[in-house]
Structure formats: structure tokens, C-alpha cells
Amino acid sequence: MKMSNRPHISFTEPFGVYLHIPFCSRKCSYCDFYSEPLSGGIVQDYLTAVTKEITFYRNLLGKKAIYSLYIGGGTPSLLSADQLAGLIELIVTSFSAPLSGEITLEANPSSLDQNKLKAYQKAGVNRLSLGVQSLIDQELKTLGRLHSASQAIATIELIKDYFVNFNLDLILAIPGQTVASWQETLLTALSFQPPHLSLYNLQFEQNTLLAQLVEAGELTGVDDKLDAELYQLALTMLAQRGYQHYEISNFAREGAYSSHNTLYWEYRPYLGLGPAAHSFDGNRRFANQPDLKKYLREIARNQLPLAEITRLTPEEKKSEFLFLGLRLRQGVELARFAELFHQKLEDVYSEKLDYLKKMGLIEVSGGYLSLSHKGLFLGNQVFMEFLN
Amino acid sequence: MKSQDIRNFCIIAHIDHGKSTLADRLLEYTGVIPEREMKEQVLDQMELERERGITIKAQPVRLEYKGYQLNLIDTPGHVDFSYEVSRSLAACEGALLVVDASQGVEAQTLANIYLALEHDLEIIPIINKVDLPSADPERVKGQLIDLGLEIDDTILTSAKEGTGIEEVLDTIIKKIPFPEDSSNQPLRALIFDSFYDSYQGVVAYVRIVDGVVEAGQKIRMMANNKEYVVDEVGNFVPDRKKAESLSAGQVGYIIAGIKDVKDCRVGDTITLATEPAAGPLAGYKKVKPMVYSGLYPTDNAEYTVLKDALEKLQLNDAALTFEPETSEALGFGFRAGFLGLLHMEIIQERLEREYDLNLVITAPSVEYSIKLTNGQVIKIDNPAEFPAPTEIETIEEPYVKAEIYLPDQYVGAAMDLCQGKRGDFQDMQYISESRVELIYQMPLSELITDFFDLLKSKTRGYATLDYQLLGYQPASLVKLDILIHGEAVDALSTIVHQDSAEQNGRSLARKLKKLIPRQMFDVPVQAAIGNKIITRVNIKALRKNVLQKCYGGDVTRKRKLLEKQKEGKKRMKQVGRVEIPQAAFMAVLQRDEDE
User: Which residue from A73, A136, B105, B380 could staple onto A21, CB 3.0 to 4.6 Å apart?
Assistant: First the structure.
């Protein structure tokens, strides 16, 4: 199999690999991420195509070492264990076993069982990220999730038997959520002592069912005052229980940081596979065809299925480095900025830094620039300043 | 060419009744523009004119038909430019009155008929858009009879489909009188518009009333006695085409090295310096701005760009005035004067589009005449300059005669609205079975705020409006100040009637609360008259604004979301510590939903 296009893409250090599994049993009301309803024939087409895509990259890049592997979706746990095992195997033999050792699989409570978990473990998955979202039935209904709170709880219990390292995704600012209901979700989740927690604000993305319901006045979004209080409650409760708050939305017990996600924030490279997957090689951002049919067609023509490829300007790189890095609690290292861009951050952005310090949104100490406690809540006000 | 073979005419119509489309068809039919080169609204050259479907500049064109020379003068179609319209009419002997076959007679149809009759024009009624299913030409004919027009020669057309065009041309020749041949008289040329050409200077659009003019002659502008030597004369076919001479009855242009449109005013008379006419043509007046507003660049560094842009626009628009102004809140900018709200909007839009400027525009104001306690009389057009109440003896403000034309079922609602806007009822007449003309006198300041929008909404869009300045009348007015975060923002001050000051203050504060985005701290908004705070609302601090995870590493999308937020921020003006969006400075013009 020979590729008919050879775009300029090159990785100079071990990169993360993100594999997108674009299938869902049903679309959640808040989700605008790319997915297709599940049907047998199309899964086989997809597997054939993504296998070819991996081979193309192996040929284009050479047998390079990878840093981490993250299988997301969609609903990856909808694939059979054998199908997943085959893909992991192919990635590891084409490139390498991940240097960080981390292989994460996203899963939904409604699509897991004991046999699957056993098989995933055997295939090399060593970190499971479970989309719990809420442990209140009414809230799960609003989100259009297929599982109930009790199903989610049963799944967490099951996971614990097979995976030491796992993450629970929870959502705050769901219409109808109260501080009490949020606390109940948090407390229940914490009772399983998850090594890692991701707490995301609900966003009303365009063209989602949820956004339409809000527009039609059938649902009301949570105002930012309550949102801030929900977030503050989580910060305090998790700190009390020994969780490290290492990124705006992410919390971990000692050592359990997500290696793969940390790549994004640290401005390190990653390769996305599958439809709608995004990549970054240190200089260029590129993305695959967001639509499964187009993706399949391009691969059938022996083409890398790229929808866009952009070489970043030095200005864009600097601003991305900052708005991604500032999401980390430790912030961005001034020395690394100087090393990457041959300029001092303090010189490039002196006025902006003064303004943001005056507003009490950032702090500089110990060679790092980071968000203040206030800045955590108003991150966008900071990030915006670093755009051209 | 003998004057018997010349016909000078214009087309008058209410907006959207099909004036420009009819003009297009006449051009096409007479072969001025071959069909294949036809684009819509040929005579509307500005992008804005085409987009909005309105004519802003008068535009003449010569048509050749059956051995006759037909000069069509396309006139501006908006009440802001009524003086320009009147001068265009003065250059003609006849007018095609275009009325939409479904809409029937509207306010500007009426205003135009009166204007045409005032200028003694022969009117040819044309009922247009007869192809529409809702067309009712008989009803429209009835309306025209009620207005005292002769309808024997009424022509039914569909300019869109090109029907009735030949009949229109034949009727022009048959009915419109040819201009009097007074070539042997001293030169008198009426300027009905002008245009600045960067190579040739000002191009004056003229109708030769008496005498003859040709290149090399020395001419004199009768309003200011400035003299120039004629470089070139010619006609519009429709582009400029040089001619030997222009003689009585003809329409064309004169180029004479005039550097500034201000020296070539619409309505002025051109005569020969060597053999001047005894007196100018009647009707010249220097048009004066009716409304004023402050123009400020959001980025102070763009001040000179704005200045250059205004100067360039003024080259072609003698009615636009501006002078430097400083605002404590907004920095350096200009106070500009406009003929009306549409004129103001057009200038703003051209500044932003053609010169890529980001502007803050303050709410429009009229010019007040204030007699101070020391006997001095001052004129102010900027609320920030309103004197302290103790220094004021009396205030006078401009009043207009407003003519509202509407279906009779909305009369009550319209009258209520006029009452609320300090209108004085003058007259009410049935123009046809169910259409009514309402006449009010009201302060211009009330008319230029949200009056027209409200009128439209209260009459389901059916009412039309025309107005003319009447003069000044005394009024009890006060200055309403707005304090944001404890500081008075001069650019938000307005002048309002004493009786409605509190209500205005509350409404304005409410609107500002909606328009000013939340900042990182609480922002109180207060309205005050003198030292008395009459209302206070609070804009709560922004508590949380942070993007969530990037799904699968889609950083580009994240960047775009941030850029969108930033773009909104860029269009705001920093006043003290508070960022205020452009729209807030025009808040007074917006509807208050709580009312």
C-alpha cells in the first residue's frame, strides 16, 4: 500500500497517539463531538481504514517511539475487545509501546461488562476513563445519557476489580443542578477513591439538542455565579481529601496525573488517528476529515485523510503555548518559553503581564507564570490577552 | 439640438416602489446600456446604494429616443435628502410618479407630488409592479384621483418584466413640455448635484436654464462670487462624454478646476463672469445639518485615519460637517453634522467599511439654542456642553412638521406615540377610503431617537413618515447624566424634557445594564440630573469564564473560541476601568423592552 500524498509532517520527540472511535449507541444531548450510530458493516469499514491510516503514518514517519496512547470517542467501549486489542497491537508494533506506560480507554457505564474489562486489561489498557457525568438520575436524563446513577455506581465498583488507575468524568453546571446535588455526586464518586477526577463545565455547543432546548426556553442554563460556587465546592472538598489540583478541570492523587492529556497542556506533540482526530507535530496542526464517509473515501484512495493542515506562525505558537500551559496549576515555565522561542516571556508580554497582575489574575513565582486562584475562574480573560 | 427635441424629467417614488428598476429598463430600452452589460440599479453607483436599494446621489443620464434627447435625473429617495430632491426637480419640466400597484400611495409619494406641483412639473402617473398577484391598479388610480391628479395617461408597468416601457417613453415626449429656448440670455446654470473627481476636481451636474456655456469661458458661482475657467462641458451617456457646449434646456456637467464641493453647492447658480445674469435662480439655500453625533475611533491611535476618512467623504458630500471634539470618556474624536439619521448611518457605514475603522458613535443630538443669564445666546449640539442650570435663562429646540401616512386602524396607536413624544396634533385627513394623513409638530430630538422604529412597530410596518424643519420653540429641558462605576461618562449624556427625565433615566440605565457586559467587578450604573441621582442599577461581576477541555486535542477550535471573545472585547471602549461596547453609546436609540 503506497500513499499518494506525502504532507510535510515530522515529529522530533516521542508523541502521544489519540485514536478516535467514532461510534455511539445514541448521541448525548450536550455532545457535538463527531460520532455515528453503531452498525456492523460500517465498523468493519472503519477498522480497515484506520489500520491503513496507521500503516501510512508508519511509512511516513518511520518507526518512532510514542509517549502515550489514548483511545477516545465516541464510545470506544462499543468495539469488541478483540477489535480494540487488534488496534492497540498494531499501534505498538508499528511504533512502540508508550514510553509513559499509559494506555487509556474511554468507556461508558452503559457499554461495559466483566468480560470486556478482562479483555481490555489483557489487550494492554491500563487506565480507564469512565463517563459518569452525574450521579443524579434527573441530571443524567437532561444530559441524554443512557445509564442511570445506580448503573454508574455498579460499573465503578466493577472497574475497581480490574483497574487500579481510573478516571471519573463529572459535569458541573447541568441545568437543574444545585449545590446539594453536586455535592451528592461528588461525595458518591469520592467514596470509590478514584485516582483521577475530571470536572467539566457543561457548555452549550451549537447545534446540540441541549443548546436548542435552552434557546427554546425549555431549559435554563446555570448562571455563572452558581457555576463558580459549584467549582469552588469541588476545589475545597478535593483538596481536603488529598487530591492535587493539577489542571483547571483535573484532579489526581499522587502520581496519577494523566500523561496523555498533559501532553496537550505542555505543548508537546501528538498524532490523531480516525475521523475528526487532531494532531500537532510541534510546528503544524492538522486534522482528519470530520466525517466518517469522507474519511473512508480518502483512505480508499490511499490518501492521508487530512481535512486541514496549518503551519503555525511564531506568534500563534507563543499564544498557544501560553493558553494551554496556563491551564496547568503549576503554569508555564519561563525558562522553557525562552528555550522554545528565543525570547523572554517577560519581554514579549510585559504590558499584558502588568495588566493581568494588576487585575489579580496571574502570579509569577519560582520561575513559573501561573493563574491565581481568581484566574482559575476567569481563565479566558487571561488567555485572550495572549492572542494577537 | 433644438430645445423642442429635449425633455427633462425625473422619477419620483416612495422607497421600494421601483424607481431604480424603472430607470434600468429605460436605459436598456433606449440602448444606453446593452442588455448583456446590465446590472441592477445602474444609476446607483455606490455599493451601499445597491445594497440598501436606495439612491443617495442624484444621477443624470441622457437617453436618445425617436430623435429626442431625454434627460433623466435620478433623484435621491429619502427624506434626509429632500433639498437635493427639490433641486433635481427644479432642473426638470416633468416627473414620472411611480406608485407600487399593491402598496398604493405612501408618505413620500405624497411629499413628492406636492414637491413636483410646487415646481410646476407635468406629472405622469405610473402604476408599477402590476405583475404581482396583490396588484390592484384600480384602487391606486382611485387614490390618485382623490389627490387631484389626472389619471387619463396613467401607465401600467412592470419594470421588473419590462412591460409598458415603450408607452412610458412615448408619453414623456407627448406630455412633458420642452424647455424654453433662452440661449440668447445671460448664462444661468442650476447645480443640482456635484461630485469630486480626484483627477479633474469637482464635476458640477447642471441644468442650463438660460444661455450657453463652453470650455474656456470664465464662470462665477453666484452664492460666493468665486470665479473659475471652464475646462470641459459634456453630457452623461451614462458616463461623462465631452461636448462642444451646453445650451439652454440641456442637462450636463461642467468641470472648472473647482477644488472643493463646498464651493459648488447644490442649488447655486453658475453664470458667466464676463456677462453675469441679473440675479440667481430662486431657491438656493445652504443645507445645514439637522443631527449631530460624536465619532470616536475605538483605538485612539486611529484618530488621524478617521480624520483623513472624513475629509475624503466630505469631498463628495457638502452636507457633511465635522470638527474636532474631545470627550473625557472617549478621547479625541469629531463632532459630525448630518442631514438626518439615514445620512448619519450611511456615513458611519462608509467609514467602517471603506476605511476599515472601528468607531464609537454617540447618540444623535440636535442643535439647541440657549439664552444664558448673562444675555448671551449659544448654540450647542453636544449634550456634554450643556451649561449648568443656574446659567440658563431659556432654551429653544428645533421643531419639525411630521407627516405620517398610515391605514386608519392604527391612527390611535400612532397618536398615542406622538403624544408620548411631545407631539402637537395639527391635522388629520383621509387621503383615501382607509388611509389617513396625520400631521404633528414635534421636537426634532424626539423624532431622531426611536420614533420611527416605534411608529413602524405600532403600525405593523404600514406607517410612513416625512418631515420638514419648522423652526425653534422654547422648551423645558435638562441634561441627563450617566455615571458608570461612579464616574460621569460625558459621551452618554443626553438632553431630555424635564417631565420625562426620570423615566428616561431609568430606561437608559436599564438598557445600559443589558448592553455592558459583566466585568471582573461589580459596576453600578446611575442616572443623574444635576447632583440628584434618580436611578441606580448594578451590573454584577463576572464570576466564571473559562473554557473546558479540548476534546481530542482540538486546539484550533479552542483558539477560535478565544478569538471570538477577544474580538468582542476589541470593539469596546475602555472608560475608566470599565469596558463599554459601541452599542452602549447608542443605547438611547434602542427599544426598552420593559416599557
Answer: A73
Is B1 strand, coil or helix?
coil
Instruction: Give yes or no for a contact between A162 and A170, defined as CB atoms under 8 angstroms apart.
Output: no
The answer to whether the CB of B575 falls within 8 A of the CB of B484 is: yes
Interface check for A231 against chain B (CB to CB < 8 A): the answer is: yes
Between A and B, how many CB-CB pairs are < 8 A?
A: 93
- Is residue A290 a contact partner of residue A34, using CB atoms and an 8 Å limit? yes
Residue in A with minimal Cα distance to B557: A278
ipTM score of complex: 0.88
pLDDT at residue B237, as a whole number: 84
Question: Whole-angstrom Cα distance, residue B338 to residue B345?
Answer: 9
Residues with Cβ within 8 Å of B433's Cβ and at least 6 positions away in sequence, in order, are B142
Which of A322, A355, A384, A388 has the highest number of chain B CBs within 10 A, making it the mutation to test binding with B? A384
Using CA atoms, how far apart are residues A142 and A145, in angstroms rounded to an integer? Answer: 8
pLDDT of the residue at B143:
87
Q: What is d(CA B80, CA B57) in angstroms, rounded to the nearest whole number?
A: 12
Q: pLDDT below 70 — which residues of chain B?
A: 34-58, 77-79, 549-552, 591-595
Arithmetic mean of pLDDT, A43-66: 95
| Closest Cβ opposite residue B550 in set A228, A264, A359 | A264
Distance (Å) from the alpha carbon of B536 to chain A's nearest alpha carbon: 21
CA distance B73 to B88: 7
SS3 per-residue string spanning B302-351 = HHHHHHHHHHHHHHCCCCCEEEEEEECCCEEEEEEEECCHHHHHHHHHHH
Higher-scoring residue by pLDDT: B316, A52: A52
Question: Does residue B269 sit in helix, strand or coil?
Answer: strand
Beta bridge partners of A306: A288
- Give Dmax over CA atoms of chain B in angstroms: 86
Cross-chain residue pair A319–B554, CB shorter than 8 Å: no
Residues in chain B: 595
Chain B residue with minimal CA distance to A271?
B553
Whether chain A has a CB inside 8 Å of the CB on B553: the answer is: yes
Sheet with B269-272: strands ordered across: B227-229, B218-221, B269-272, B188-197, B201-210, B251-255, B232-236, B240-243
Contact at 8 Å (CB) between B146 and B431? yes
CA distance B542 to chain A (A): 7
Name residues 303-342 of chain A within 8 A of B (Cβ): 310, 316, 319-320, 323-324
CB contact under 8 A, B546 and A387: no
Residues 82 through 121 of chain A touching chain B, CB cutoff 8 Å: none
- pLDDT, tens digit, for every residue of B1-45? 788 999 999 998 887 788 888 988 998 889 887 665 666 665 565
The reported pLDDT for the residue numbered A28 is 84
Contact call for B520 and A378, based on CB within 8 A: yes
Nearest CB partner across the interface for A323, out of B540, B542, B562 = B562
Domains, chain A = 15-265 (3.20.20.70), 314-385 (1.10.10.920)
The residue ranking higher by pLDDT, B576 or A103, is: A103
pLDDT of residue B205: 92
Question: Is residue A66 within 8 Å of A15, Cβ to Cβ?
Answer: yes
A224 to B546: CB separation less than 8 angstroms, yes or no = no
Q: Which of A200, A231, A279 sits opposite B549 (nearest CB)?
A: A200
Residues of chain A in contact with residue B550, where contact means CB-CB under 8 angstroms, are 264
Contacts of residues B311-316 at CB distance under 8 Å and 24 or more positions apart, as own/partner, are B313/B347, B313/B350, B313/B351, B314/B261, B315/B196, B315/B260, B315/B261, B316/B195, B316/B196, B316/B261
Domains of chain B: 3-175 (3.40.50.300), 188-272 (2.40.30.10), 291-361 (3.30.70.870), 369-475 (3.30.70.240), 478-589 (3.30.70.2570)
